[in-house]
Amino acid sequence: MKVLVLNCGSSSIKYKLFDMTSGEVMAQGGIEKIGLPGAFLKLTDKDGKKVVLEKEMPGHKEGIEFILSILTDKTYGCIKEYNEIDAVGHRVVHGGEKFASSVKIDRDVINKVIECSDLAPLHNPANLKGIDAMEALIPGIPQVAVFDTAFHQTMPAKAYMYGLPYEMYTKYGVRRYGFHGTSHRYVSRRACEILGVPYEEQKIITAHVGNGGSIAAVDHGKCVDTSMGLTPVEGLLMGTRCGDVDAGALSFIMEKEGLDGHGLSDLINKKSGVAGLVGGSSDMRDLEAAVEAGDERATMVLDVYNYRIKKYIGAYAAAMGGCDILVWTGGVGENQWATRRVVCENMEYMGMKIDVEKNEGMRGEEMVISTPDSKVTIIVVPTDEEYMIAADTMDILGK
Length: 399
Known about the structure:
This is Acetate kinase. The chain has 399 residues and is of the alpha/beta class.
């Protein structure tokens, strides 16, 4: 079964084509600047080289049409005809309380995704454009929606309710939803496969840490808490998102700076986090380089970044009454060994001991990095959300 996975953003489309019989990634790439001058598609060719192809693409339909033309291209393609694609799996950001699992897309599903668009106004409409474009280009092709929020729908009310008037929940659905759910689900299961332990018997903390980041507590196979909230702003310090902040500070800033809702949203989403604190790049590699060069503010920012992660890990161990496995994933979690070391240091009180030599320099591969006598197994598992989407698509259509 060949499954095309699409992740449509407001001006971008990422794609991967899987042969699920063999698990092979047949093609992958992404389009940037849809609807803008200088739109292009970047792909990885058969020899592993990066290729950039420029083309004007006024909308998502034209972008997906271009992707399909490349998949069937004599030079860059891997299939001869569109109908070799058996199904399409879509990343859909917000499913609200309506979806606790992936689903085959029909008109009722589309209507419910539209209803959730208030909760993700930048993402759900773009996801829907991808669904509509595929139906227009390959009428009748089976499509599946895989939701970022679905994995977290097992959280109890004590974890997802905010201390706001209850009507804010009943009228507008204001509560914690969490994101990165497909990644947290994949790496928590994959870690147990690697370790040969039963998933349903473990207390797992998953740290998806990168430019965007979240922590999740997975107790006996179910998510019981996660750091992101109604939106992806809450929780950890991120590249440009502020993470946890006193809500009173936001109203104070709005008054002082004369900001409206859009201005505040821009501040906390695009001008805060690492970039806002350091006054420059949001790239963690740049931040670490500045720290090594002796920059005091950069050192403070990195301390804040690492401290937030450590604090959430400790909180979730307390919430679950212990931790058996800590999983690192995401761009920073997989590659920044110094952050893993600093966060895991001085955690012996909860049975966590990192193997400094194994950890140092280890990047982007599956590996246990705890010591043999550590009661908590610390493991790095590169995430593969696209494979998870493809696997869900195959499973749902197979049923």
